[in-house]
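User: If only I could read backbone structure tokens as easily as an amino acid sequence. Those tokens are not coordinates but codes from a learned vocabulary of shapes. Could you go through the record with me and say what the backbone is doing? Here is the record:
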Amino acid sequence: MNKVLVVEDEQHLAEGLRFNLEDEGYQVQVVETGEAALDVLRAQPSGFDLVILDVMLPGKDGFSVMSELRGEGQFVPTLMLTARGHPEDVLKGFAAGADDYLTKPFELAILIARLRGLLRRREWLRASLDASTRAPAAPAETPPADEFQFGDKTVNFDRLELHVRGQVFPLTLMEANVLRYLIQHEGTPVSRKKMLEEVWGLHEDTDTRAIDNFMVRLRRYVEDDPSHPRHLLTVRGVGYRFIAEPRAT
């Protein structure tokens, strides 16, 4: 049975989520504040399969909770609940490390579908990690890894990992999706608006500069010197361009 932590201070919504998720077969725990969520997750680092995290909370908000968890190396799949009409919240949530988002008010069926999608990704990762600990199979039985290598770096999209000179950086699902999108358009300037529409699924009138904060986060992983990027380049007035093999300087 999958265990879900619901972080929501609106009692009627929290209890409604508890009732409906339990009816779907989930085990549910509810907390009302960001501080309580951090306490529970720190005490049980592997105790939950999913987190539903509201943005607007008393005390520490959802963004702060998300940033602290990811900064501490906790990568439990997290769905953030945001206020309708605030697409900037969506980008801010992804920049903090959220895996998916849902705007309020939402349909229960949509929320359940999003949770199932996150759980499938978690199971794929577990299966991939389990396979890596077993004896290697014959080449014909081993499908090629979903990965891309550039320079001394390899991004593994199956495991949501970036390997750099012996170090492994875990990626959130959205970070991996952004990298994949830029890699697929290698060498071509990609506009912020296009990224908002095709990666984040936002079609509203959003401040596209919010994407810049997300790219700052990615550069910390990808670039040897984030202040002088060589792979994730800014195209002034447009957006970004990915270069796999930059020219020697």
Observations:
- Residues 82 and 103 are 5 Å apart (CA to CA).
